[in-house]
Amino acid sequence: MASLATLAAASAVSSPKNETAIHAFIERMYQAIWFDKGGWFDKDLMRSVMHPEATFAWDEGEDVRLVDTDTFLDLFGEAFRNDGIYSLHERSLKMTILEFGSVAQVFDVYEAVFNDGEHIARGINAFQLVKHEGAWKCSSLAWCEETPELPLSKLYP
């Protein structure tokens, strides 16, 4: 089994073209969920960047919930409507890419700004990417939001 140091070394020799493509891909993923007041997230763009069998996973306290893309989009929309969220802008603060051949792991510290700055959240997005039909697709997205008990400062001062 490869050590993290070996994987990090493999990432260091990945081509700049792949790294650029992966950065652009993650940017498209964030664009799919951004929306301003009066708008909504882009379900078609989200479906286009996801592998057909992709999963979403998020922390629900002691457990992690796993769903497919369509279920995620339904739950995401319902939760935002119920919580009165009318805008969201999410951006990458620090991205680490480990890539080897047709697979990549992207560990991304994000900041999400809701309702024009009314609420700001930070956390970690863990993207598993695979080449599918010649293009990068997300096969899995897992995330965990920062809390007072689990501050990002422990990992990223």
From TrEMBL:
Tree of life domain: Bacteria
Gene3D superfamilies xrefs: 3.10.450.50
Entries under InterPro entries matching the protein: NTF2-like_dom_sf
Annotated protein name in UniProt: Nuclear transport factor 2 family protein
